[in-house]
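Entry 14. Ran structure prediction on the chain below.
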Amino acid sequence: MALNNPAFSNPAFQDPKAVQTYPGGRQAAGLTPPPAPTQLSATQAAATDAAAQARLEGMYAAPAAGAIETDRMTVEDTVWKTVGLFAILLVTAAVGWVWTLGGLDASRAAEPSILPWIIGALGGFVLSMVVIFTSRKKVRPALIFAYAAFEGLFVGGISAFFEVIWSGIVFQATLATFSVVGVTLALFASGKIRASAKATKIFLIAMVGYLVFSLINVGLMMFNAPIAGGAFGLLSQEFMGIPLGLIIGVLVVIMAAYSLVLDFDQIQQGVRNGAPRQFGWVGAFGIMVTVVWLYVEILRILAILRGSE
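Output, structure tokens:
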């Protein structure tokens, strides 16, 4: 069961037997075992061996079958789909950045607008829920494209807003995000880090606790509770001289990194299950959800650090 990212709740990533329900079933996925051998005469055996040898030579001579030829999900195809979604995100992030700063006129940068990242956050949240609940029946790439566009608007808007207050913070957050994603991917690819049932249960408990804390913090900030004073509410308070947001933020970054490990694992599981190629979009969507979450958390950690200087 995918406990990290609801995007991977589809049976294609969970149940190896689910491939039987896909077009072509196990035979199309290449999962059907070969038939039991039958007794052949010497002439038939020789002819069969020659035919098998010819097929084998043809297989080596032919180009490798990829996602397009097999219509099955592959890691490489999912990577390209992920790159495509982030390209959409970057384009709309530029729009959100310019919009937040009031256009191309730098003189208006002193009064940044929060409208772009509010619209992006709300639109992205609604579309993410739609994608998660509808992809169990049918994958709709157009919805995932729209989600990436709204997320770009959100990322660009909130980045520009923070950049006006703390110059250089966006570059720092971007570099840190790339570093965490790169290290996590390298460790996963080398086999030095893997998802485990025990670690995933701990991760789930931590995620639920963080969600409850975040909702309480937002509620206190909305009602201007004295205990939630500061730009980040309870996260602005100090614990033993250290900003609470810094302590929690480091833990959340660790959770986000482990979430990436779970995402990579689920994608590999989908490939092993012989999931249809269209589920590569779901894998790319799941990666984007986690990376955007990681970036925003790192941005907030840096803002708390810069704000305490």
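The beta strands are 238-239, 242-243. Will compare against last week's run tomorrow.
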